[in-house]
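Suppose a classmate hands you a notebook page containing two proteins, each written out with its sequence and a corresponding row of structure tokens. How would you begin to make sense of it? This section walks through that situation. The first entry is reproduced here exactly as it would appear on such a page.
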Amino acid sequence: MLERKGYYRGSTVLVSGTAGSGKTSIASHFVEATCKRQERSLYLSFEESSAQLARNMRSIGIDLEPWVKKGLLQFHGIRPSEHGLEMHLARLHRMVDQFKPRVVVLDPITNLISGDGDREIQSMLMRLIEFLKANQITAVFTSLTVSGKHAEQSEMGISSLIDTWILLRELEVNGERNRGLYVVKSRGMAHSNQIRQFLLTDQGAKLVPASVGGSTAPLADSAAQRNGPERARGQKKQKRRSQQRSAVARIRSTANQEKPFLAKAAGENR
């Protein structure tokens, strides 16, 4: 969705969405990919402890503990109410100076800045982003949005500070609640305008086509995609059986229609 190349190093990425949309899962994928390149990642969680986060990510096939043991990943569970914005900013500076990460994740940033004025928030985030960019550190922020509000409206009004903005949303089709993902903007590169459905499986998040030319047909098959190839094969067998039954019914109907004609033809021959 980003020219198949990913993000620019040192850029700022915002992943926003409602509760349960997959923000932490996307951020964890980002961290895992960084560690696989033998680069360091710093993960600051403002909702979950490191043990809880590692356990939850294992349920979708992302095992982060080996990277912690190798020294490539540091977790910090922080209570937002412990300090003000300035203290949190100073603490983050110390962590970066000591650990020297290439990627920093703040999850979710909305918890960190709740209760402060818009100007203080803008000032803090601007200084944080400038500090990370100056050190060529890629930043990933997650943002919790409120259901029912306009989707393309960040809670903190920081969209102008962000290089790449990924929005997660709910897609309801045929009585199913599905997860959708699309790129609102990405500076300096071409990017897809499609809404892509993604599934959280035991092998991580999987992107599937969600909407092409206004069609939502792939979404109707999401249950088969989630439940794996066995269900898909079962559906194919059922479809073949249905086609065979229809063919037999057509043959029988044709035979019944031909009986009076054959009987009449036999009488004429006599």
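The notebook's second entry, a different protein, reads as follows.
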Amino acid sequence: MDTRPIGVFDSGVGGLTVVKQIMKVMPHENIVYFGDTARVPYGTKSKEAVTKYSKQNVRFLLSKEVKAIIVACNTASSNSLEALRETFDVPIFGVVVPGVEEALRSTKNKKIGVIGTPGTVRSGAYERMICEQDSEMQVFTKACPLFVPLAEEGWTDNEVSRQAAKRYLEELDAFCEEQKRVQGEKQKEFKANHPELFFRYPKFSKALAKVLDPSDEIRPAATEEQIGNQESVLDFTLPSQVREFFLLTAGIQASTGVILSLSGMFDLTIQGGRYCVLGEFWKEADGDQLLLRPGEDTIWYYAHEQDKVKRFCNDMTELLEKKLTRYLNEQ
């Protein structure tokens, strides 16, 4: 049995709530806790500063010969966890994943509110992870900079803390209602203008409607003749699901980095393999492309900076209703 302690750090004393749960679940473990009260709060500082402090905290805990480290600070977990794991050869755990898992279990209406320090909210870590798990989730965030100093003063149950919480939550509620109203109007307008596209790809359409700018474009449906002419020019037979999509719209161009265009398709040879470019998807870098191969339904992804082609999804429906929907919901 490894008798070395577990290391835990936070920007102050708030992480002791995490320690309390560790002791409850693993009562036989020894714990070394470090609260960086000299530099609290982390939530108002830059990502670079938080990462620098977090690395110093880990080095201190390693000097105590800990076997694992828990980052009990939401700001550090949101901004610095990957950098810590890349730097140190010790198991390091954050608090974002457990929070996300509990929120996903608890929500009954696919809507989740996130309150935290400005640094936590600014990182977008919770929104990204929630939408990765379920692309239909709606996430609303509110930075609450007063919560940390109130907690550090021990003012967690008095009129000042209650009024601060009331004010923040009222603002979050108002923001949620306004966002819901705006998104509902956008989706209603999208459905009215593109009913067949909305019916065939509802998740994609709802996500797209939320992020469309006035300069973005959804083209009218292509005809069988136009699709056939493009196939002749390319000497390429489109998969049935791709044809079905273009019969609903000849193309979509969204400034968030999604471009699908019948007229813009062209042949491309990569590392000796022949592909047909379906469009662009700026998932990893601007200009990355979505590809088709002859005789396949599979959609491929070309990361041009790495000059690497990788399998992306099984077919056009999965591309739209899962991959692109998840991406758009994160924007």
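A careful reader of the second entry would note: The two ends are 46 Å apart (CA to CA).
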